[in-house]
Amino acid sequence: MQSDSSLPPLSLLWPTGASFAPAGSDSLSAGAADDLNVMDVVKAMIGGADPPIRVQQRERFARQILGQLSQQPEVIAYRQGVLEDLITDQPLRERLGQVLPGLEALWRARAVRRYRP
Questions:
Q1: Within 10 A of 90 (CB to CB), how many other CB atoms are there?
Q2: Is the pLDDT of residue 103 over 60?
Q3: Where are the domains of the chain?
Q4: Among 72, 66, 55, 67, which residue's Cα sits nearest to residue 19?
Q5: 37: alpha, beta or left? (left if phi > 0; alpha if psi -120 to 50)
Q6: pLDDT per position as a tens digit, 28-77
Q7: 90 φ, ψ to 5°?
Q8: What is the spatial distance between Cα 75 and Cα 13, in angstroms, rounded to a whole number?
Q9: Is residue 75 packed enough to be buried (19+ CB in 10 Å), middle (13-18) or exposed (0-12)?
Q10: In this model, does residue 92 exceed pLDDT 70?
Q11: Distances (CA, A) of 11 to 14, 17, 75, 79
């Protein structure tokens, strides 16, 4: 098994080698977000079973991600492929559902360490 430092970064939004702040990105306008019912999508994505502050953090992050529009064909194709996999692969969705609580715990532990004196 590879050590953590030798594993390549994994992103469901950016293909390997793509910039995380690519040129050619635009922001979705508030009017367009309303027309597309982005908040309904955000609420479906984030759930609401956690403490209100965590739900608010997830909501803010999801709005930010959904509001970033990439014009790079490779990024668009990659995201379409990820979405297709998530829609069509039930075992994948189940496995992701199983690992998400652990990822949340890691995120919380990292946040707590940042604020220690």
A1: 9
A2: yes
A3: 26-69, 72-117
A4: 72
A5: left
A6: 888 998 998 989 988 888 877 778 888 888 899 888 888 888 888 898 89
A7: -60, -45
A8: 8
A9: buried
A10: yes
A11: 5, 11, 11, 10
The structure tokens listed for 1 are: 């098994």
Q: What's the Cα-to-Cα distance from 47 to each of 34, 41, 59, rounded to whole Å?
A: 20, 10, 9
Q: Which amino acid is at 94?
A: E
> Phi/psi of residue 46, each to 5°?
-90, -20
Provide the whole-model pTM. Answer: 0.66
Full DSSP string of 47-116: -S-S-HHHHHHHHHHHHHHHHEEE--HHHHHHHHHHHHHHHH-HHHHHHHHHHHHHHHHHHHHHHHHHT-
Q: Residue 1: is its pLDDT beyond 50?
A: no
Q: Report in angstroms the alpha-carbon separations of 6 from 2, 9, 46, 51.
A: 6, 9, 30, 34
| Distance in angstroms (rounded) separating the CA atoms of residues 62 and 59 | 5
